[in-house]
Amino acid sequence: MPSGGAPRQERSLHEIHADDPERADALAWGRRGMLRGAALAAMGAAVGAAIPFGRQMPGGLLPAALAQPAGAPAILRMDGKGALLILGDRPLVAETPETLLDDDVTTAEAFFIRNNGQTPEPLTGDPRAWKLRIDGEVATPLDLTLGEIEARFPLVTRRLQLECGGNGRAAFVPETRGNQWGNGAIACAEWTGVRLRDLIAAAGPGAEARFTGHFGADPHLSGDPNRQAISRGMPIAKARDEDTLVALRLNGRPIPTIHGAPVRLVVPGWPGSLSQKWLNRILIRKDPHDGQGMGGTSYRLPVRPVVPGSRNDGRDFADMQSMPVRSVLTSHAHGARLPAGTRALALRGKAWAGDLTVREQHVSVDFGRSWQRMDLRDPANPHAWQSWSGTVTLPSDGYFEIWYRATDSTGAMQPHAAPNWNPQGYGANAISRAAILVGAG
Ligand SMILES: Nc1nc2c(c(=O)[nH]1)N[C@H]1C(S)=C(S)[C@@H](COP(=O)(O)O)O[C@H]1N2
Ligand SMILES: [Mo]
Description:
Elements: H1 13-19, H2 21-28, H3 37-47, E1 85-89, E2 92-95, E3 113-114, E4 131-136, E5 142-145, H4 146-152, E6 156-163, E7 186-195, H5 196-203, E8 211-216, H6 236-239, E9 245-250, E10 253-254, E11 264-266, E12 279-285, E13 300-302, E14 317-319, E15 326-329, E16 336-338, E17 344-352, E18 358-364, E19 372-373, E20 375-376, E21 386-393, E22 398-408, E23 432-438
Parallel strand pairs: 4-12, 16-23
Antiparallel strand pairs: 1-2, 2-3, 4-5, 6-7, 7-9, 8-12, 9-10, 9-11, 13-14, 15-17, 17-21, 18-19, 18-22, 20-21, 22-23
The protein binds the ligand Nc1nc2c(c(=O)[nH]1)N[C@H]1C(S)=C(S)[C@@H](COP(=O)(O)O)O[C@H]1N2 and molybdenum atom (MO).
């Protein structure tokens, strides 16, 4: 601590932020929540450029450029996979950078990975011999091979979003348990398969058929054969949705091992954990399923808001169903540097809203003072995401943030902060901010 009259070495806001973010905030913003003159200059120095819209920055908000976790994330190296960001290696969890989501149909290479257990060994032998059992509250339990399933039931092909229930989790304050996803636990690929409802109908569901339970062949992390890596279930109405598929192909090709070969569920619009990989059994039940990942605070949200950071056993929670509205920016990476003089930015991205559709997409480059409506395309089919694009104009060189926000078909829009805090961090669909430097450095 400096004392007496010794000249004090000024520290940059960036350094202060590194060990005392609250003090950095207090220095940067006065009590009125307005970025002050000297602090604005300091902030500009920290991000390496002037901040032309700095006076519009809300109080307590640090530039997105500073809100970067320390250290570069590890990049996945795996045959058939692109440069995903590794969030965990046991179990393997890897996120897709937003710029790899630019294609209308997500490639197998770009598809995010979320394992809860071990990855099964690659299939040897004929995938058509793989067996799927449908039993429980049915008149005729079925044991069908994939060969039989393909021969017996109509095949459909649809573009379907698959999004982890924890997508966006890193935005929760205070931090919640689990993989700290940015926005990249989303994919919209072309899936081919049979409808789950056709299989259920063939088994003759009884009057008590109200829920499903899903089982897969991946070993538990511990290797204990009596434990499931994950085994979730849903109300029968979602199982009967025409877009809920028992999928055999991803983008016209056999499903890669890491994504559930040779067969998986695709339950679009609901938490990805329902989309059981390496699927070998569907149990039809009269009561909600009680497998791994059901009950407590797992994939469940508070019915009444809880105090952020508080402990909770989830007794008052309800299963998460349709995922909330969210968008990604795919044309520009967070932290992109653009040549001096760049004034027009052609932006592109995707937006989706669980079982709903997206009605509007907006972008702000002045910290939310004004919002510009983007062009938004219709989805290719229900449960597919939507592409958006538009050009924004910057007034000068400097530091900017692109804020992007989608609004769903009911009028609900992405909030400024992750809403409805919950211990395991589901449903964080906060507005995202990408930092852009024009002509700096
Ligand atoms: N058998 C099995 N299925 C599973 C999982 C798993 O660990 N094992 N993870 C689930 C979760 S939490 C998600 S988000 C999706 C991810 O699918 P992906 O790895 O193909 O992206 O698969 C779901 N299906
Ligand atoms: Mo997930």
